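Appendix C reproduces, verbatim, an entry submitted by the partner laboratory led by Prof. M.T., so that reviewers can inspect both the input and the predicted structure.
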Amino acid sequence: MKNPKFEGPTESEVFRQHVVSATGFWLGSLAFVGIIIRHLIAAIIPSTLAKFFLCAALLLLVPILNRNPRMKGFSGILLLLGVSGLALISGFSNGGMRAPAVIILCMAPLIGLFAIGKFGAALSVAINAAIFSTLIFGEQQSWVQPIQHSDKHSLYMAVIYFLGSFVGLAIGAAYEYSRKKSEDLVRKLSSSADYAAKMASLGEISAGIAHEINNPLAIINGGCAVLIKGATLTEAQQEKIASIQRSCDRIAKIVSGLKKFSRSSEITPRGRHFLVPIIREAISLTEYKTTSTGASIVFEEKSNPMIACNEIEIEQVMINLINNALDAMKTSEKRSIRIDVGEDTLGAYIILADSGPGIPEKIREKIFEPFFTTKPLGEGTGLGLSISKGILDDHDASIALLPTSVGTCFKVAFKTLQST
């Protein structure tokens, strides 16, 4: 059973939330103070004053609404509306594009990006374009209250402000890019640390398993040796005991393979072996399970490449893949496994495909992780594929899940040797 993971906001999301809240609070506070001071210096008509206070109130609502996760998107839109409203009202009441407060629109794309995301940035650019056009048109129609202390041309100011807004947007985009890169890096490092922890746990478990199995195995093997020497046995009985001894030797080699996951790892002996006999032995050892599940295995030998390997370990990889395929096909009407072995320009390969339901796309990246299993509780440990991948990595080989429309298909690739 997998441990539940806490799904909360990332550090950058928390940072952006604070930025949006702080922007709303300080802009709203400055707007209130600035409007009052401006009114004391030169009286503002009541209707315009009310509009200014309304925009300031909207900005002060932003940090309050932003505390509620469900209202974050709405508070971001409210922030954009408050900033745009202040600039628009200021422009109409004090010189159009020449109004000092209109420069706040340069910040709008950056605010939109922080508050809402890409949609907010695009929305703010569109709002800026609409406000600039409205103010320029308003000046031409004499709807804008003139300003006497500036000779700045309105079109010139519009261009400067609009370019400034894109500078702000570029800054925000650079931040977003660096944020995503940083989060991806943290996610990868976290995944690597998690994998290392699982492998460490697997190493401790495998060392204990190897010790616990080797003791009774030695007793069985020794008992077989005593039986052969101390009793008169028929030829059939001798063959049975010899078969038990071979099975014990095989189990001992498989158990010793578990040591690669423990700290007491030793180099396993390698030799030059043909692939076809290894695959045939794996098919033979899984024959009972294949027959009992009503499945069939089709083995096609396109060639018989030679590789450097520990044949017991490669057999174990094939047994794991065949057993997984048989388990996956339990609910399938057609139960068949096809195994191809051959060579190409890259080396030797084994392709194993089954007629089962396949592996869902969303978990394909996890199937080689230790302890990950799709089998019901009690029917799988989640170690088969991870151990197989570990064995193949140790052999400088690879295993990959190939795309297929039906069932599951694995490809195991090796470096070939020239036969002598």
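Strands lie at 271-274, 296-301, 306-309, 336-344, 347-354, 398-402, 409-414. Additional entries are available on request from the coordinating office.
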